[in-house]
Design a protein that fits this description.
Low-confidence stretches: 125-140
Mean pLDDT: 84
Number of helices: 9
CATH superfamily of the largest domain: Response regulator
Structural class: alpha/beta
Helix content: 40-55%
CATH architecture of the largest domain: 3-Layer(aba) Sandwich
Number of strands: 12
CATH topology of the largest domain: Rossmann fold
Order of helices and strands: EHEHEHEHEHHEEEEHEHHEE
Number of domains: 2
Strand order of the largest sheet: 2-1-3-4-5
Strand content: 15-25%
Length: about 250
């Protein structure tokens, strides 16, 4: 998938720009970078990219403004936003503005690569009809995340989920959720004790159907379980229902 795939990195930290572009190019991606929001938006408008890695804090124009303008102009290029660890409110806001996922700094490069691959698979399998519907889907998604954010802090006993900030608190530690982790947990928590198939979760959370491997759901469930402290063999909150899918137990 990486061969010939073009990625735009909009980031103003020189060291991180070098690290990202070197690693992405080593993985076979074609990479361009811009160090401010204005130049980044111009680049995104002037040529086609398969994905954009977008920092929130940028000179000239913030990452939020860049993402908002891209979506307002009908550009559905997948966007992964990068936020500083302290920018907790920024995570949910990024999703509302149309970002597809986010990671908080510092992050593991392997996780960023995994999320890039997942979003590229999503784009690859979406039909023209699905792409034309993506604006309406984004609006529906935003309402789901807004409802989650309105719930604020929810204490589940072993952990606290702060849906307003995208943070898990457990045993005195904090664990930021990525964008897709947040969406998946929010969706499951909104429907406690209901069983959802992997295909249903792909459609509801990622926005695509069963053409894409359901392994994506399993991987994200595993990541969430680690953060909320669910035992790997006998989880307490996100249960695997054999032959059916997953169920969230508050």
């Amino acid at each position: 998938m990486a061969n010939g795939t073009k990625i735009l990195v909009i980031e103003d930290e020189p060291g991180l720009v070098m690290t990202l572009t070197d690693r992405l190019e080593a993985e076979g991606y074609q990479c361009e970078s811009r160090t401010d929001g204005v130049a980044g938006l111009e680049a995104a408008h002037s040529r086609a990219f398969s994905l954009i890695v977008l920092d929130v804090m940028l000179p000239g124009k913030s990452g939020f403004d860049v993402c908002k303008e891209l979506r307002a102009n009908g550009d559905k290029t997948p966007v992964i936003m990068l936020t500083a660890r302290g920018q907790i409110d920024d995570r949910v806001l990024g999703l509302k503005l149309g970002a597809d996922d986010y990671l908080s700094k510092p992050f593991e490069m392997a996780e960023l690569l995994a999320r890039i691959e997942a979003l590229l698979r999503r784009s690859e399998f979406r039909s023209p009809a699905e792409l034309s519907e993506s604006g309406r889907a984004s609006s529906q998604d935003a309402r789901i995340w807004e409802r989650a954010a309105a719930r604020g802090r929810v204490d589940y006993g072993a952990f606290v989920a702060d849906f307003a900030t995208g943070i898990i608190e457990r045993e005195g530690e904090t664990y930021p959720l990525s964008g897709q982790e947040y969406k998946l947990l929010a969706y499951l928590a909104e429907h406690p004790n209901e069983v959802f198939s992997r295909d249903k979760l792909l459609d509801a959370v990622w926005g695509y159907g069963s053409e894409v491997t359901t392994r994506t759901v399993d991987v994200h469930v595993a990541w969430i379980r680690r953060k909320i402290g669910d035992a790997e063999l006998i989880p307490r909150h996100i249960l695997t229902v054999r032959g059916l899918g997953y169920r969230f137990v508050p």
